[in-house]
Specification:
293 residues, alpha+beta, Ribosomal Protein S5, domain 2, Alpha-Beta Plaits, globular
Length: 293
């Protein structure tokens, strides 16, 4: 096997509470990561050049600071000296949307090259490597909808009703650094028990989106700093209960079925992009890896 084409699915934060801040500046949080069945796609071709070559349908993403390149280089010490790869990223997710696209791309890269280079590293070992690349990378490496604590790396897989979501991203790029370093960011949310999370989100109804106990602590600040996010949210909430994911700018709404979600998508404001996706409890990346020969 010398080639692979694999998905790099998006995620949503169904809620995001910031409960404190460590001495090193990292924020302590609680969140529920919902895996989606849509995202980027990557193609991998293994070779013996000893080099990593990354190309993309967006040329601005082809630099060595891309998490895909960094993930590949993080695996190089485990591989033969002449292990190389050509990687093509079909970028579909918006940048700076809070959908985890870069982290998911990195996780897919770790899995793909682990397989192509026959490294035989375990999922746990890949997750440790991934954590050095970014706090969200282990989520995508492990590949399950999960309740997360710590800085986002303490993951407990959960099974949720697999709902239909409309994801909408206004035309702005939210700086995660600017949000997490801003003095007005909420940092004192109370710690909530895992049992309370599972009891609320395990139900088939969508009442949690209307419940003020569950929120995104970044959202009020982002709406103030990026007014287009607030304007887009006002549009989306007319169709269904809505919320921001991650540090934004992407927003999501839960719909009872795909037809109603696509009706709303058809009326998308001109300054936005969007897609319909289903929440899944197991990443499509894991399924694709199982079928790779």
């Amino acid at each position: 096997m010398q080639q692979l084409r694999l998905p790099a699915p998006a995620k949503l934060n169904l809620f995001l509470h910031i409960t404190g801040r460590r001495a090193d500046g990292y924020h302590l949080l609680q969140t529920l990561f919902q895996m989606l069945d849509s995202g980027d796609e990557l193609e991998f071709s293994a070779n013996q050049s000893g080099e990593i070559q990354l190309s993309c349908n967006d040329k601005s993403l082809e630099g060595e600071d891309n998490l895909i390149y960094r993930a590949a280089m993080a695996l190089k010490p485990y591989a033969a000296a002449n292990a190389g790869a050509e990687i093509f990223l079909d970028k579909k997710l918006p940048m700076g949307g809070g959908l985890g696209g870069g982290s998911s791309d990195a996780a897919t890269t770790l899995h793909a090259l682990n397989k192509l280079w026959q490294l035989n590293l375990s999922v746990a070992e890949l997750a440790v490597i991934g954590l050095k690349l970014g706090a969200d990378v282990p989520l995508f490496v492990e590949g399950y909808t999960a309740f997360a604590e710590g800085v986002g790396e303490k993951l407990t897989p959960v099974n949720l009703p697999e709902k239909v979501f409309l994801v909408v991203t206004p035309a702005c790029h939210v700086s995660t650094v600017a949000v997490f370093t801003h003095p007005d960011l909420i940092r004192n949310s109370k710690v909530i028990s895992k049992a309370d999370v599972l009891n609320s989100f395990g139900a088939s109804n969508g009442n949690w989106l209307r419940n003020s106990d569950w929120r995104n602590d970044c959202q009020p600040l982002v709406e103030r700093l990026y007014p287009i996010v607030a304007i887009t949210l006002q549009w989306l909430v007319e169709y269904a209960p809505s919320r921001m994911t991650g540090t934004g700018a992407s927003l999501f709404a839960e719909f009872p079925d795909e037809i109603s979600a696509r009706r709303a998508l058809a009326n998308l404001p001109a300054n936005c992009r969007g897609f319909v996706a289903r929440g899944v409890n197991r990443s499509p990346l894991l399924t694709a890896l199982e079928h790779a020969v």
